[in-house]
Structures are given as structure tokens and as C-alpha cells.
Amino acid sequence: MTSKLVPSDPSKVMVIRQLTPNITTCSAPFLRFGRLKIGGRGTIVRLQSGALAVFSPTALTPEVRSTVEKMGNNVGYIAALDFEHHIFIGEWAKAFPAAKLLGVDGLPEKREKSRETAGNKFHYVWTQKNKNDMKIDPEFDREFDYEYVGSHTNKELVFCHKPDRTLIEADMMFNLPAHEQFSRTGDDPTSGVLTKLFVRLQNTAGAATWQKRFVWYVASSGDRKAFNQSVAKIASWDFDRIIPCHGDVIETGGKGVFQKVFEWHLNAHK
């Protein structure tokens, strides 16, 4: 199934880009359900201690491995940002066995059910019960705010790298089309009937009405009160840039975009 989602030779199409002296992204094509062009993105953050934190890792290509080495090669944390973004966790854990794995409620059990993903120990697993008491390490906690949105259908982990005022998230919010992630493929990131429809549903342009509706009626429908609380907490953080897993990076003005997309939830929380 993985072969239908990710490119067979990611080295040829991945875009590795340094956003700040501390943050590098690895962007590649990704097809949801084997059809929707939503792209995929991993983010590597170098902490002040020199340790690297990797969020939603993409394929560990030779180019990515070289990037990690240039950033110090000290991978200390590998995070699966939700119940779905874990495909390459095992590959990275094998390459960096000293790294601590971060995940969400139910993900370790899900991975153990498949021979392809079994065998990795998660050191930190967020649940609705422990989310307010969760602490990682002093070096990590000094630089990151984080919130577990277990009320989201995909059980989202959202991080904010405080020194670079950068929000890092997976499926909490999309910013389609995925121009950067398909830029080396020669493919139009908006081509295909289903992709065109999904781009309309998951973009941040204008009033972002369709994405607002999707988040309100689908993503948060299980426990909207808890979702509203999480959104309000995230909105209280100081960030300007948003790095989504799907779609283009919002380089600046991200706080306003976040408030726009989650406007209904923020208003409901008041």
C-alpha cells in the first residue's frame, strides 16, 4: 500500500530546504488514498543543545541523511504527529537508535499489528488523560510548546518552536495546493478531478470557508468542546510561520491564517 502513496525514488523528487538556521524541511510528493495530491513534509529542528527533533519524518534518503549530518547528526527525538504520520518512523529509529520516539494514543498498538511497522518502542505517548502533565526533557521543553488534540479524528500533536516562532503540524490544517512538494515531479499539484475538489476543501485562501466547514463538521465532530479548548491554547502561542505536512509552508502571517481557519472554534470557546 505504501508504494501507492509515496514516490518509488524519493531522492529524485524531494525538496530539502533550510527555512531558518535551526529548521530544515523535507518535502515530497504524497498521494492520499493513492489519488489525492496532498504532498508530505518532514521537519527537522536543531535545538540549542545540538540535539535534533524530527517531526513526521519522510524517507531517509542519502540527501536527507547528509542534511542530518550537516545539522550535527544528533537525532534525539522522532515524533509521529498523528495516528497516520508514522510510515517512516521505523526507518529513522533504526538509523538513530538512541532517539526517543514520540507518538499519540493508540499508535504503538496500531504499528504492532503489522510486521512492516512492529518493533519500535515509543518513549512518550500522549493521551487525553496525561496531556496536561506530559513533559519530555528540559532541553526539549525549553524550546517547544505542544498540545495533543486527541479530539481530532486523527489525534493530532501540534508543536511550536518558540525560538523561531514556528508552528509544526500534520493534519490539523492543510494549505493546498502542494506546490513545493510536487515541484520536482513535473506534475501539476492541482490536476485530477478528486484533487481539484480536495484542494477547494483544504486551502487557506480567502475566507477558507470550506476548510472551516471540514474542520467543524468532520475533524472536530467527536468532541468539539475539547477541540475548541485545544485550538484556543494553540492560538495563544506566539508564532508567525506554519509548517503543515500537506501543502505549502506559510512563511509569515501564520497566526492570522490559523485564527481564520479556526474562527468558529475560537468563537465557540469564548
TrEMBL record:
Domain of life: Eukaryota
Entry coiled-coil feature ranges: none
This protein's name: Nuclear protein Qri2/Nse4
